[in-house]
């Protein structure tokens, strides 16, 4: 009942503008104070149940015998299919009206939805017992007088199965009591069922949300974040091909050539398992660097054996750039060099703990690439283009412990504050003669300060 009251208050805000506290008070009672709501409900129900028999105590007992009551009756008027008895003392009494009031009192108790079935049963049972005591005991003479005045004939000649109006009234109250109990029980059953369905639906939604978040995390571990959003944000089919062209992407290949000689299969290292365990530790430490904020723009592409491939500039939205930002569009190349330095430092730490002497051979190049996702069941993000091939050649033709770059890349690194020395012209497979450079570890910190050197 209270939800309907609250809905009515919300729907008629204009009529309650002079009483702004009334909707707020109703909302507080309904939602925040269950005990206050229960007390208010019981008080209202008790008041309605009492008012159903309130007039009975103010009807004067006509007294005398049934024959005297019958002789004092003036008339029995029939109008609108209802019967009413008028006595000489101007007392008006209507037995069906009294029964209807009692039934309405029971109905008012059953319509309160926020009290449980047992409490409704106890309240209605007490009300039915009190009503029957009034009908059959305390006001029996008054009802007998009305009975005689309404039906002068004997009980055998009266219509209907129940000849006594008192008995008929008690049976009617009992029937409505049972009916309301069944309805209350059915209503509580459906409320509980609805609650269970809602709870199950809520748990399933939470499970679905958890699975979606888990899938998102797993997909972002396989694909870059912006590519994962592309697949999570819309419905896509297996034949859909994700691809994106970039004008300037910096590609790095970092390999550990000594690992091939280190890897052996014998009983001492459990048929090569310990060697793979060390390689996994190295790659895991390299991946840990990606979580640092300064390397947020670095995307790991894949590992090929002991070669680590990464790129920067893939999370930048392609499009025209302002002339003022023309120099800053190459800042990601400096980030890649910083990442290469971090890989060298991380491998030095691993060497100290594992008593090894591994060294990295790193090649870096930049230029246009095409990025895309290949595969449906096990999708793999990769990049293609001549810039990728040249970066791979910079690694294979490089020197241990050195970072080899092309002439174009060295020019940009020099503008960013990094020191590069010319290695000379080398023969690159498939590319012919190329002039390459080595990046020195001694450099200015203009990149970390956010400035670009002219």
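^ structure tokens above, recovered residues below v
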């Amino acid at each position: 009942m209270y939800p309907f009251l609250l809905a009515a208050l919300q729907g008629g805000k204009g009529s309650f503008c002079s009483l702004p506290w009334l909707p707020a008070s109703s909302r507080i009672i309904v939602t925040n104070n269950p005990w206050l709501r229960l007390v208010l409900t019981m008080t209202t129900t008790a008041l309605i149940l009492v008012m159903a028999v309130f007039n009975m105590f103010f009807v004067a007992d006509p007294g005398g015998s049934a024959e005297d009551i019958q002789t004092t009756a003036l008339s029995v008027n029939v109008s609108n299919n209802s019967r009413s008895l008028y006595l000489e003392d101007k007392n008006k009494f209507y037995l069906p009206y009294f029964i209807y009031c009692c039934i309405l009192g029971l109905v008012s108790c059953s319509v309160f939805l926020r009290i449980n079935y047992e409490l409704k049963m106890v309240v209605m049972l007490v009300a039915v017992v009190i009503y029957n005591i009034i009908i059959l005991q305390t006001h029996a003479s008054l009802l007998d007088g009305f009975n005689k005045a309404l039906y002068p004939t004997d009980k055998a000649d009266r219509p209907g199965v129940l000849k006594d109006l008192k008995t008929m009234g008690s049976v009617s109250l009992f029937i409505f009591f049972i009916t309301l109990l069944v309805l209350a029980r059915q209503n509580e059953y459906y409320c509980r069922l609805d609650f269970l369905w809602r709870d199950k639906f809520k748990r399933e939604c939470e499970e679905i949300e958890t699975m979606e978040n888990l899938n998102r995390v797993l997909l972002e571990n396989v694909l870059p974040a912006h590519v994962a959003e592309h697949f999570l944000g819309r419905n896509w089919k297996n034949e859909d091909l994700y691809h994106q062209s970039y004008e300037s992407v910096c590609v790095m290949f970092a390999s550990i050539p000594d690992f091939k000689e280190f890897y052996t299969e014998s009983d001492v290292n459990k048929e090569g398992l310990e060697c793979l365990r060390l390689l996994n530790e190295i790659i895991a430490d390299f991946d840990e660097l990606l979580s640092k904020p300064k390397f947020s723009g670095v995307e790991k592409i894949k590992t090929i054996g002991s070669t680590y491939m990464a790129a920067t500039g893939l999370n930048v939205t392609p499009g025209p750039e302002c002339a003022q930002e023309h120099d800053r569009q190459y800042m990601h190349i400096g980030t890649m060099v910083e990442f290469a330095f971090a890989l060298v430092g991380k491998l030095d730490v691993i060497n100290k703990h594992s008593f090894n002497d591994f060294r990295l051979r790193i090649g870096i190049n930049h230029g246009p690439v095409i990025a895309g996702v290949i595969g449906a069941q096990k999708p793999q993000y990769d990049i293609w283009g001549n810039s990728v091939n040249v970066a791979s050649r910079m690694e294979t033709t490089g020197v241990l412990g050195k970072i080899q770059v092309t002439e174009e890349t060295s020019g940009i690194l020099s503008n960013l504050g990094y020191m590069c020395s010319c290695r000379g012209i080398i023969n690159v497979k498939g590319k012919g003669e190329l002039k390459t450079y080595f990046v020195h570890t001694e450099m200015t910190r203009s990149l970390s300060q956010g400035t670009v050197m002219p």
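Residues 165-222 form the longest helix (58 residues).
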